[in-house]
C-alpha cells in the first residue's frame, strides 16, 4: 500500500517543530507570522491536519531553514495531501481516530498489540467480524456491514506478500473464550489463529488468566514501528471511539516497557498455539 499521508503529515509536523525549537520561536510568534491561531500551529506540529505548501514555506523560512530544507518540507507537505485508500469508504473514514490508525498501520513495518476481547481485526475471520458488528449497539445497514468487512479484508492483506507486516499480538485469554457468534464461529476463529501463527511474520502469544495482574490491565495498546528511522514509534491507546496517539519518547517509554513485560508473562508462541487449540477443543461441536 506504500507510505500513507498520515505518516507524511506526522513527519512534516515533527520536523517543523524541531526547526521551530532550534530557532527559539514560540507558537504565538509563528501564529502571528502566519496570521492564524496558535491552535493551528499545534495541530500542524502534531500531524493532525494537512498543510498548505505556502504555509510550510513561510514557517520554514521564518525558522531560518536552508533552501534544501524548505524544498524537502514542501515535498512532504505535497505528499501529505494524498488521499488514503480508506477514504473511498465513507462510513469508515468518518470513524473518530480510525483514519490516523489506518494511516499508521498502512505504513508500519511492524505492529505489536495487546488487549482483552475482542481479538485484533488483523486476526479476525469474516464470520467473527460480522458477528461483532451484529452485536454492536449501533445498528448497521447491510451496505455498512459489507463496507467494514471489505476494509478489514484490505487491512489483512498487509500480512501477505513479499514484504508483509510484522505482527506481534499478545492475546488475553478472555478474547479466546468470549463466544462471539456462537461455538462454530469461535472454533473457526481459533483454528484460524493457529494457522496464522505458522506465518514467519506473525507472532502470537496468550496471556492466561493464571498470570493475574499485569502492567497493561484495562488498556488496549498498539505499537507502530517504521522502517525509516525518521519516523518514531507511535503508541495507540484505546479504540476508535477513544483514541490517543503518543510519539514522544517520554510518553511511549512506559508503554513499551509494559508491553515487554506482558510478553515475558505470556506463554511462548508454541505453548500459545497449543493453548488456543485446547480452548477450541473445549467448544461443543
TrEMBL record:
Annotated GO molecular function terms are: DNA binding
Domain HTH cro/C1-type, residue spans? 16-70
Entry-linked InterPro entries: Cro/C1-type_HTH, DUF5753, Lambda_DNA-bd_dom_sf
Protein name as it appears in the record: Helix-turn-helix domain-containing protein
Q: Which organism is it from?
A: Saccharopolyspora flava
Q: State the Pfam families in the record.
A: DUF5753, HTH_31
Signal peptide coordinates: none
Amino acid at each position: 500500500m506504500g507510505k500513507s499521508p498520515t505518516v507524511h503529515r506526522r513527519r512534516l509536523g515533527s520536523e517543523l517543530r524541531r526547526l521551530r525549537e532550534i530557532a527559539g520561536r514560540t507558537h504565538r510568534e509563528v501564529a502571528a507570522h502566519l496570521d492564524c491561531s496558535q491552535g493551528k500551529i499545534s495541530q500542524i506540529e502534531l500531524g493532525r491536519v494537512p498543510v498548505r505548501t505556502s504555509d510550510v514555506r513561510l514557517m520554514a523560512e521564518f525558522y531560518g531553514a536552508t533552501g534544501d530544507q524548505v524544498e524537502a518540507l514542501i515535498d512532504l507537505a505535497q505528499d501529505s495531501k494524498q488521499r488514503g485508500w480508506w477514504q473511498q469508504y465513507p462510513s469508515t473514514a468518518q470513524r473518530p481516530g480510525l483514519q490516523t490508525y489506518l494511516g499508521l498501520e498502512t505504513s508500519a513495518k511492524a505492529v505489536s498489540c495487546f488487549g482483552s476481547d475482542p481479538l485484533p481485526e488483523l486476526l479476525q475471520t469474516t464470520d467473527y467480524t460480522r458477528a461483532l458488528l451484529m452485536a454492536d449497539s449501533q445498528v448497521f445497514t447491510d451496505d455498512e456491514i459489507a463496507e467494514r468487512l471489505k476494509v478489514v479484508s484490505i487491512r489483512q492483506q498487509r500480512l501477505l506478500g513479499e514484504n508483509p507486516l510484522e505482527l506481534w499480538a499478545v492475546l488475553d485469554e478472555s478474547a479466546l473464550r468470549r463466544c462471539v457468534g456462537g461455538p462454530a464461529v469461535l472454533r473457526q476463529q481459533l483454528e484460524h489463529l493457529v494457522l496464522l501463527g505458522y506465518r514467519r511474520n506473525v507472532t502470537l502469544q496468550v496471556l492466561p488468566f493464571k498470570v493475574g495482574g499485569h502492567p497493561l490491565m484495562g488498556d488496549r495498546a498498539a505499537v507502530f514501528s517504521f522502517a525509516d528511522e525518521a519516523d518514531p514509534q507511535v503508541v495507540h491507546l484505546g479504540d476508535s471511539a477513544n483514541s490517543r496517539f503518543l510519539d514522544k519518547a517520554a510518553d511511549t517509554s512506559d508503554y513499551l516497557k509494559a508491553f515487554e513485560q506482558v510478553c515475558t508473562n505470556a506463554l511462548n508462541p508454541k505453548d500459545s498455539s497449543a493453548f488456543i487449540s485446547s480452548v477450541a477443543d473445549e467448544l461443543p461441536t
